[in-house]
Amino acid sequence: MIRPDTTPRTRPNPYRKRINREPSPLLANTVPYATIALASMLPLLFVAPVGAAVPPLGFMMLVGWRLMRPGLMPSWIGLPLGAFDDLFSGQPFGCAILLWSMTMLIFEWIEARWPWRGFWQDWAAAAVATAAYIVLAVMFSGAPLRGPVLVSTLPVLLSAVLLYPMVAGLVAWFDRLRLLRIREVK
Question: pTM for the whole thing?
Answer without folding.
Answer: 0.83
